[in-house]
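Dear H.,

Thanks for agreeing to be a second pair of eyes. The structure we're designing against is below in token form, covering all 154 positions.
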């Protein structure tokens, strides 16, 4: 199983979604590969935003080692599930899809918590510290639900 987290820049939301799910997968001893990417190429090669890194460290999930990359059409072949943080990310991913099989892989992350509501993980980039804490909490909840899907029955 391979899971990809996607936002716009791959420096705020998807890196913490990636880091938290990786941490939970490792702790549970599961065979799940987790990665993240951005629909834009503006921050390729960069570490996550310093504010996201600080919040992540403070709340127990350091993500200093992650580096931004851009989502590419090959990711549809590589990954089983592709989670978008908001509807803009979702639409940008869908624009790159080639067929129904690609499109079936794309989901809104917070639909794991609030099924069918298409709620967004809000972009914290232009806000204050609280926005980063809120993102961490939302993504923490969603990734716990994802993890539980794969641990049930074990
Ligand atoms: P992200 O946040 O999509 O959660 O990584 C953003 C990062 C950078 C920009 C916007 C959102 N930006 O405009 O550079």
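And this is the sequence the design step returned. I haven't edited it by hand at all.
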């Amino acid at each position: 199983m391979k899971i990809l987290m996607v936002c716009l820049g791959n420096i705020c939301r998807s890196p913490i979604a990636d880091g938290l799910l990786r941490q939970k997968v490792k702790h549970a001893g599961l065979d799940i590969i987790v990665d993240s990417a951005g629909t834009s190429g503006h921050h390729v090669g960069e570490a996550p935003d310093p504010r996201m890194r600080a919040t992540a460290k403070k709340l127990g999930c350091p993500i200093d080692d992650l580096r931004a990359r851009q989502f590419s059409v090959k990711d549809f072949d590589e990954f089983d599930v592709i989670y978008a943080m908001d509807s803009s990310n979702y639409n940008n991913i869908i624009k790159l899809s080639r067929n129904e099989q690609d499109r079936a892989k794309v989901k809104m992350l917070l639909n794991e918590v609030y099924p069918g509501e298409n709620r967004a993980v809000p972009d914290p980039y232009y806000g204050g510290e609280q926005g980063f804490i809120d993102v961490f909490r939302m993504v923490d909840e969603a990734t716990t639900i994802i993890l539980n899907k794969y641990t049930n029955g074990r």
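Two observations from my side: The chain has six helices and four strands. Residues 2-151 form a domain with the Rossmann fold fold (CATH 3.40.50.2300).

Warmly,
E.
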